[in-house]
Amino acid sequence: MKFSWAGLILAVLLVWPACGFGQWETLEEGLEVARFDSGLRNTNPNGDLVVLRLDMEKWGLRAFIPEESDGYKGRSAKRWCELGNLTAAINAGMYQADKVTHVGYMKIDGKVINSFNNDYLSAMAFGPIDPAEPNFRIFDLDEITLGEISARYRTVIQNLRLIKRAGENRWQPASDHWQEAALAEDYNGRALLIYCDRRWSMHDFNEIILALPLGVVAAQHLEGRMQASLWIRHPDMDASELPGSKARPTLPNILGVTKRHPPE
Q1: What are the angstrom distances between the C-alpha of 259 and each of 62, 143, 152?
Q2: Tell me, what's the pLDDT at 174?
Q3: Is the separation of the CB atoms in 6 and 38 below 8 Å?
Q4: What are the domain boundaries of the chain?
């Protein structure tokens, strides 16, 4: 029988929460954070994978891009949080050689920023036009068109698919490894902002987040390598202890987390 490191990793992950990792910490109602060690042993006392979980009835996502009048190409996730009074910020997706333009289709708050539809098969959507629609959803673009999604949601961003609904790893094993920032949806429709500081192939990363107690049903790649970033700005969270907190790349496009205010 051929030995499988991937199988051993998954077996360890399934019991890892009993070793002190994987405990959800409630920062506020509907806002939770958990840290995990994605590998075989505890090499980082704070874990190397962090997940911010959002109840989308109480919290919202907003997409931000640099304004031409500001004369900048972007900011670190920490700086985006400070200037925008955001609770958290993560990459909105990969960008082109100009270090500003998103690689795929992007519509923000009803305005089409980039109309180019590439071959990436995942689209995040939030801000439903019909309040009966889910506040947040990750769609598979081999099941529905961008046009249909854009007609239903004010913000739509196309990115590379990691996991197809419901819970199908779409990557094959590969030798290329990198840090990862990802967006996922769980079985309760919650948004999961995920950052992993340890380098994995995308196949193995997918297997890890599917094995962890996250309930992932769909996920998309936001950014990899040194450009991947997540910052959490909350009085009950010391962001300097988070995986990857020392690296603060400049991000031209981000997803920001804000508190949803009840209707008056």
Answers
A1: 10, 31, 22
A2: 87
A3: no
A4: 21-226+249-259
